[in-house]
Amino acid sequence: MNFSEDERYSYSAPDEKKKHAAKTGIKYEKYCTPFQSWSLEKLPSSVDFWQTDIDLVSRSRAGDIRIYELKCRGGKLQTSQSITYEIIAKGLEAITGRNITVNNGYRDITINITFKGFYKIVFEKECPRSGRSFVNGVEYSEKELIDFLSFRTDAKTKT
After folding, report:
1. The whole model's pTM is what?
2. What residue spans define the domains of the chain?
3. Beta strands in the chain (DSSP E)
């Protein structure tokens, strides 16, 4: 799984968000969950340590798995997110086609894993209802997005 230079390096770093928040009077917490805000204050700096919240992982009964990063208002993927997602994607690619035994709390079950990829979904506003939606830079109608997220279709490619 490779990320484009544009995806890897175009982002708004947390320090830039803090500066923006200071200029506008918006509290930095607006950009993060309470846990993220706490961890930014208490855990090591991003010089040696990164955190990434994974927005969505979908798995079909057949064992198909996709990972999604959701961005509202045209948001950009941060470098640390991009690298972390790439590491996870490479791990899932490595087990594609293998039977993996997991325990569902009652018994062991075996799932044949097929990693279907990492996708960045960008909403023009907040969600598909409030504006346009893009998957890896390709515009999707609401129906196309539903079909894609439900594993009924594969990702469209740029033309």
Report:
1. 0.74
2. 5-149
3. 56-59, 64-71, 99-103, 108-112, 114-123, 133-135, 138-140
